[in-house]
Design a protein that fits this description.
By secondary structure, the chain is mainly alpha-helical. Helix content is 63%, strand content 0%. It is built from three helices and no strands. The longest helix is centred in the last third of the chain and has 28 residues. The protein is flat, with a radius of gyration of 22 Å. The model has no long low-confidence stretch (mean pLDDT 76).
Length: 84
């Protein structure tokens, strides 16, 4: 037996239902500060320097996801069949 439930709600509504804080104002403030410091030429606010950790970890995390999916597909218990 299968059940399927479709819920149509916006990301803001989901955030409220889950009780997560609204960080939109904080995000805007932080982005404005980063932009100001980048425009002023402050050391460490080079766009490439800022995004380097995300770019390098993104590839690693994608590889980890691929390995996890491969191990799930090749597992002897995959497919919902009993091994007995």
């Amino acid at each position: 037996m299968k059940f399927k439930i479709d819920i149509d709600m916006s990301p803001e509504e989901l955030r409220k239902v889950l009780g997560l804080p609204d960080v939109e104002g904080f995000h805007e403030d932080m982005m404005n500060r980063i932009r100001e410091q980048m425009d002023a030429g402050v050391d460490g606010y080079d766009p490439l320097t800022l995004f380097k950790p995300y770019l390098s970890s993104g590839v690693g995390s994608m590889e980890a996801l691929q390995k996890m999916m491969l191990s799930m597909m090749t597992s002897p218990y995959s497919g919902g069949k009993n091994s007995e």
